[in-house]
Design the sequence.
């Protein structure tokens, strides 16, 4: 017997506008609208797209020991966060295997952790159980159903949003947060995203989500954003070389293998998994996540076997046609000896070996906000 | 409007007689279901295809789907333009998005396929089941 799917506050809007709805992480979510995934993807890189990401978990971590709990359970250095700043981070198990990738925000009087929809309940239980085991004074509040989240992504995002927003956006730094009125509504705004473009993630009360969504869609200056579903979200993040939990990130792989060493701060003190990760760093990782592009024409997909010299060496974690880079691209775990750009791989597609070549990540050069520096 | 100048298979391909050849493609219903086509693998000129047997693959962003030949015979042409620009299959599934031309072994085989009207019913029945 399957449990009923959760729906976001925007579900009716999606259905009324021809969205193809699919189950994702326990939620009914739009994978595309009638315009299709390629058009939505291109609209984001050309201007702006709007994504309902309310399915993601939003958990407040409150109390005197909030920072301590997060510092002991995430890989990044929570104590290095300034006020109203955010950081990408990972939750690991004792073996250093990845339980989730998250964003941690230091807000005025508490922390906010945004987690993957599929892991929300497990992450909550994990955080609560550890807090109890350590006797920490922490209160974990799941706000997922009271607060909606909308992402506005693309080079035109700032220009499009500014007339609706009370606070000046030009000086808002990447991975920072601020509270402001947008369309007259209280919004927690973050300059974060999952596309490699400039953009924002807006958190608003659930009962104001549809009105805010429609206000954003009604913008015409400089252009109207396109509503975008999970299909475009996936092709955009793939081109940006960003990991997806369940594909690149799993309990059987570590953040170091995934190339996320920059958010694993082994010097900050012990955290769950730190001993295993330190050992792995000392001995070297047994596999590395790489990007590749096809040499023979074929679409690489999650689960396809990777070979070298006719021998299986790994598996494709994600793959597709990249609409902006105009190439067939993918990511895979391979032995370290094959991780250098230019390394030749074989991708097993329907019983034949299609040639591929390791290339540097990201496939699409990021254009996220950089203050005080010309260009990216 | 489902063109009535051709016949249709239960696997959402069409077959149109053109002289002594049959042109083959997928239906508008099929391209809508698939979504944006990003890759298609077709038989080569000279290959034999068999009615209702897999002849290739068509892939959209989200999924890969087998292509079934609606007729038996020898492939005499392949639409290379559709292979290099698969968007044509979405934009024009009945015209520019044709897939292969076949010299059929037996034109009578087409009688086993559906008319446009029968195909429309087939699609709406399928829709009602879902």
Sequence:
């Amino acid at each position: 017997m399957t449990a009923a799917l959760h729906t976001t506050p925007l579900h009716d809007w999606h259905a009324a506008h021809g969205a193809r709805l699919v189950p994702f992480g326990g939620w009914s979510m739009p994978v595309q609208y009638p315009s299709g995934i390629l058009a939505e993807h291109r609209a984001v890189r050309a201007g702006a797209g709007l994504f309902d990401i309310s399915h993601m978990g939003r958990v407040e971590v409150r109390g005197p020991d909030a920072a301590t709990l997060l510092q002991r359970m995430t890989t990044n250095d929570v104590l290095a966060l300034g006020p109203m700043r955010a950081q990408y981070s990972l939750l690991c198990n004792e073996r250093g295997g990845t339980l989730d990738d998250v964003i941690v925000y230091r807000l005025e009087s508490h922390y906010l952790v945004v987690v993957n929809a599929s892991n929300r309940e497990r992450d909550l239980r994990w955080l609560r159980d550890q807090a109890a085991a350590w006797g920490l004074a922490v209160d974990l509040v799941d706000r997922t159903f009271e607060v909606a989240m909308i992402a506005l992504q693309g080079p035109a995002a700032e220009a499009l949003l500014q007339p609706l927003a009370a606070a000046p956006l030009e000086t808002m730094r990447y991975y920072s947060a601020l509270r402001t009125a947008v369309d007259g509504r209280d919004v927690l705004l973050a300059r974060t995203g999952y596309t490699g473009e400039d953009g924002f993630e807006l958190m608003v009360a659930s009962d104001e989500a549809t009105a805010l969504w429609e206000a954003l869609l009604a913008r015409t200056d400089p252009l109207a954003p396109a509503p975008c579903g999970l299909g475009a979200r996936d092709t955009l993040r793939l081109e940006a070389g960003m990991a997806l939990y369940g594909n690149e990130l799993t309990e059987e792989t570590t953040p170091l293998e995934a190339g996320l060493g920059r958010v694993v701060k082994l010097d900050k003190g012990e955290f769950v998994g730190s001993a295993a990760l330190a050992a792995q760093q000392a001995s070297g990782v047994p596999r590395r996540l790489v990007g590749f592009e096809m040499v023979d024409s074929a679409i690489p997909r999650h689960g396809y076997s990777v070979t070298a010299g006719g021998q299986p060496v790994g598996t494709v974690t994600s793959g597709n046609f990249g609409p902006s880079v105009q190439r067939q691209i993918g990511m895979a775990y391979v032995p370290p000896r094959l991780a250098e750009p230019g390394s030749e791989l074989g991708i097993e597609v329907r019983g034949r070996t299609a040639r591929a070549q390791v290339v540097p990540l990201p496939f699409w050069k990021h254009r996220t906000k950089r203050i005080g520096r010309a260009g990216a | 409007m489902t063109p009535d100048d051709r016949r249709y298979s239960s696997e959402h391909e069409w077959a149109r007689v053109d002289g002594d050849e049959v042109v083959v493609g997928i239906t508008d219903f099929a391209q809508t279901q698939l979504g944006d086509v990003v890759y298609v693998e077709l038989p080569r000129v000279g290959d034999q295809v068999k009615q209702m047997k897999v002849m290739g693959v068509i892939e959209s962003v989200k999924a890969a789907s087998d292509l079934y030949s609606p007729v038996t015979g020898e492939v005499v042409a392949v639409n290379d333009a559709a292979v290099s620009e698969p968007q044509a299959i979405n934009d024009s599934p009945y015209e520019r998005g044709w897939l292969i031309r076949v010299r059929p072994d037996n034109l009578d085989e087409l009688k086993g396929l559906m008319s446009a009207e029968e195909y429309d019913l087939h699609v709406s029945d399928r829709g009602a089941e879902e």
